[in-house]
Amino acid sequence: MAAVHVPLWAVCVLRVALATVYFQEEFLDGERWRNRWVQSTNDSQFGHFRLSSGKFYGHKEKDKGLQTTQNGRFYAISARFKPFSNKGKTLVIQYTVKHEQKMDCGGGYIKVFPADVDQKNLSGKSQYYIMFGPDICGFDIKKVHVILHFKNQYHSNKKPIRCKVDGFTHLYTLILRPDLTYEVKIDGQAIESGSIEYDWNLTSLKKMEKSLAESKDWEQDEEDKPQDWEKHFLDASANKPSDWNSELDGDWQAPMLQKPPYQDGLKPEGIDKDVWLHQKMKNTNYLTEYDLSEFENIGAIGLELWQVRSGTIFDNFLITDSEEYAENFGKATWGETKGPEREMDDIQAKEEVKKAHEEDEKELLMGNFDGKESNFKRFHRRNEL
Question: Where does this protein hold an alpha-D-glucoside (predicted)?
């Protein structure tokens, strides 16, 4: 039988068609978004969201998203979907965020929660699986968070990933693969990638196959396992990351290290029972032992963050198992409106400059210019914030 040659485009279409979309939100049905999203009432001072495309946009309707509306507030809102496990599958999380207020200090990240999260009481203390997206505060913090919840602890990525700091809409994509690799994209371009195990400093959680030492305090003729033997102990050398915010990221805990199985008869002298030496052996099986990127009960996505100055717009949320689908979705949403958005902003900026010049000339003719800062300078200083 002759070989059948399938066009590459047909293969790509088939792969996208087989994609599983767990959650997708574009806010294209007006105020009915309120039927899908739950505003937390945990704190009466939580800020509120509205649907808006902002002061400038590429498409007035397509660019509408959830916008923060009150300065100096915490925000907490979430949407639920059918629970799923990403075991053995790629997990792609994607959304757009726009800081048109020129963010000075505040979060622009999202959180993915277990299905049993209490939406009405959502707060900074609510357990989450994944926290992903930009965080900006002053000159020091301009980073993309990628925090994973694993073995009852939150682990932050070691590699610094710089976020976008301008006032335009940007597309953020996180890809977690079953082979324990990951990729972070901004505006469709790969910014960082690597090993989940090593880039989250999870190597201490590897399976330990063989011990070389046990406690010096045990007698040589002792046959039973000591009563004070514990399977895990705190990593005393671990330090809390300098930019860890307990209010936003949750309480930080030092990672737990796993002691090797107790082996009777292996009792070298001179080693304290809380200090352990292990033989460095190549272990090809430990990667499947800990499932570093698997989450069994994913069921909600939300915004739980703080902002000094409001105005951020969140849109085009997507959770899927297909990198191709996410790429195409990004092109069909952000890709179609990014150009017109910048054009509209450029037109508005030119109009504001012209208006500022006209007001300065009017002030000068009226003799009211002495001791005043020009409107032109005020306009530019505002846009530098």
Answer: 109, 111, 128, 135, 304
Establish whether 135 is an annotated binding residue. Answer: yes
Structural domain including 369 reads 342-384
Class of residue 178 by CB neighbours under 10 A (exposed 0-12, middle 13-18, buried 19+): middle
What's the longest Cα–Cα distance across the chain? Answer: 102
Domain assignment of residue 52, yes or no: yes
Q: Is residue 51 part of a domain?
A: yes
CATH number reported for the structural domain that contains residue 333 in this entry: 2.60.120.200
Residue 92 lies in a domain: yes
pTM assigned to the model: 0.73
Residues 69 and 151 in one domain: yes
* Tokens, residue 323: 């990198």
Report whether 361 belongs to an annotated binding site.
Answer: no
111 is in an annotated binding site: yes
Answer for the pair 132, 154: CB distance below 8 angstroms, yes or no. no
Alpha helices in the chain (DSSP H): 8-17, 196-199, 246-249, 287-290, 323-332, 334-365, 375-384
Contact 260, 210 (CB under 8 A): yes
On whether 95 is known to bind a ligand per the annotation, the reply is no
Q: What does the pLDDT look like over 195-229, one tens digit per residue?
A: 998 898 776 555 433 333 343 443 444 445 555 55
| Cα 147 to Cα 78: distance, rounded to the nearest angstrom | 18
Give how far the C-alpha of residue 274 lies from the chain's centroid of Cα atoms, to the nearest Å: 36
Q: What are phi and psi of 35, to 5 degrees?
A: -80, -15
* Gyration radius of the chain over CA positions: 26
